[in-house]
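The material for today's practical consists of a large collection of protein records. Getting from the letters to the tokens is the skill we practise here. To make this concrete, we reproduce a full record directly below:
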Amino acid sequence: MDAESAAGGRSTKPATAARIYDYYLGGTHHFDADRETAQKVLAVMPTAPLMARANRAFLGRAVRHLAEAGVRQFLDLGSGMPTEGNVHQIAQLVDPGSRVVYVDMDPVAVSESLELLNGDVHATAIQGDMREPEAILTHPQVTKLLDFNAPIALVLCAVLHFVPDDDQAYGLVSRLREPLVPGSYLVISHGASEGGVATVGTAAHPAIQEAYSQRTASSAGGRTYAGVQRFFTGTDLVEPGIVWVPEWRPDPDEHNDFADDPRLSCVWAGIGRLH
């Protein structure tokens, strides 16, 4: 049963970034408002589903790399609707005892995640807003499942561009990093404000921002390479550094929609090790 059927047919629920992303990925956890907002974005950026798929593929490669490097704890903020290749599934293939906490502000995303995680004592999902880092770090489920005396991978994939205010965005990442011990990791993918974005024309940028700000609780805005790099201050970047999302340790067996021009993915990606 899809999300709309479970809600009793045609839904009046407002759109959320999590369910719009699910729509781009070809999922079923979305409502009328999500599809309408997604279509507005697709009208000016028709490659949005390909961008979402490339970002999701990066998440999988990043988690697999960290799990194989020995990381056994993951805090995934803005985790969205569950789909194939979730963080806990990838990490637990390496070590079944890997612990994962998913955080999203969308109650439907959290509910669907908890249903998927039923019976998994090493993973859970909570409702939370990354703009309120203190509430996340002190949440009983977070402190119960994660050991902050051991390395944790803080995952912020395709979420920080929904915090367009620089002071707020850099401040919240700094606070989220604060309790993490050396050897922890910061995983970020972030919408770009240069590169392939220019191909959709300058008029597209306000149209996309308007679609999100008017119909969801989130505004959207890309950042430059330097702006994304600033989030990694005080970390050692894992090779190949901050690159276009399909360029981060690509899997030769994985389909790449942007093989001819990675800039068209419009997303920066990188991992930093805290020291």
